[in-house]
Amino acid sequence: MTILIEQPEFEIGVEERHRVADGGFVAPHINSFGHTFRDYHVESERQKGVEEFYRTNHINQTVDFVSEEDERGIWSIWECCELVNEFVDESDPDLDEPQIQHLLQTAEAIRKDYPDEDWLHLTALIHDLGKVLLHPAFGELPQWAVVGDTFPVGCAFDESIVHHKYFQENPDNRNPAYNTKYGIFSQGCGLDNVLISWGHDDYMYLVAKENKSTLPSAGLFIIRYHSFYALHRCGAYKHLMNEEDTENLQWLKIFK
Ligand SMILES: O[C@H]1[C@H](O)[C@@H](O)[C@H](O)[C@@H](O)[C@H]1O
Ligand SMILES: [Fe+2]
Ligand SMILES: [Fe+2]
């Protein structure tokens, strides 16, 4: 979810104008670089970096890599907000600002739209905190292993995934056990049983789960799959979902 603060120079509709006057946030139609959101093909210096990001991301996210263990420590939520603030997300074509603004704005925007769903406000605040993996205190993982859109590994890479062509160099793409529609999974097996490319989503989900978070299943689902655009934006991989996934997907669509 990408939400920026009020930007008066943008043209806004009546409803949005009302919300701004009300002291709320408004989501502009163009990003900080003057382009429409999530446009991965516009020519710009920023795009070159984003494309290079996805080249390394798509080559290195393999079943072996995703199955590696990680280490843990104890940090407060706010300390983590401050840690992620040090980084610029190389995969994001829309934002080149530190993360803390993004977290607070996302939480505030969703609070305005869903004032009674307090779990959703918290979910929004922490949804990207897994980006702490970029920090030396959390292993200093490279950007390709932390950010960017996520996708299943262990079955065919769907064409709707951004910069899909770079999967040609991913060794799993040539592995007959991994390159079919179902690969190592089965019809309706549930996303919980699907290996997803490693990154900030799955990490933050694991931290919440292992610490016995009381967030509802939909909150955990949002954290875990918010970067899975092929699913929630393009409808790919639905054949792997079970009933609970279908219910939770409705909340994820609201969030995005
Ligand atoms: O570039 C962005 C960024 O890394 C976000 O945090 C992630 O959730 C999005 O899926 C991705 O497109
Ligand atoms: Fe985000
Ligand atoms: Fe994210």
Overall description:
It comes from Hibiscus sabdariffa (roselle). With 256 residues, the chain is an all-alpha fold. The protein is built from ten helices and no strands. The chain has helices spanning 14-21, 45-60, 63-66, 77-84, 99-113, 118-126, 200-210, 217-225, 229-232, 243-255.
Q: What keyword list fits this structure?
A:
disordered N terminus; 256 residues; globular; binds fe (ii) ion; single chain; binds 1,2,3,4,5,6-hexahydroxy-cyclohexane; mainly alpha
Uncertain residue ranges: 1-23
Binned strand content: under 5%
Give me the strand/helix succession: HHHHHHHHHH
* Helix-strand makeup class: mainly alpha
Ligand inventory reads:
1,2,3,4,5,6-hexahydroxy-cyclohexane, fe (ii) ion
**Helical percentage:** 25-40%
Keywords: Ascorbate biosynthesis, Cytoplasm, Iron, Metal-binding, Oxidoreductase
InterPro entries: Inositol_oxygenase
Protein name: Inositol oxygenase
Subcellular location: Cytoplasm
Short description:
The protein is mainly alpha-helical and 256 residues long.
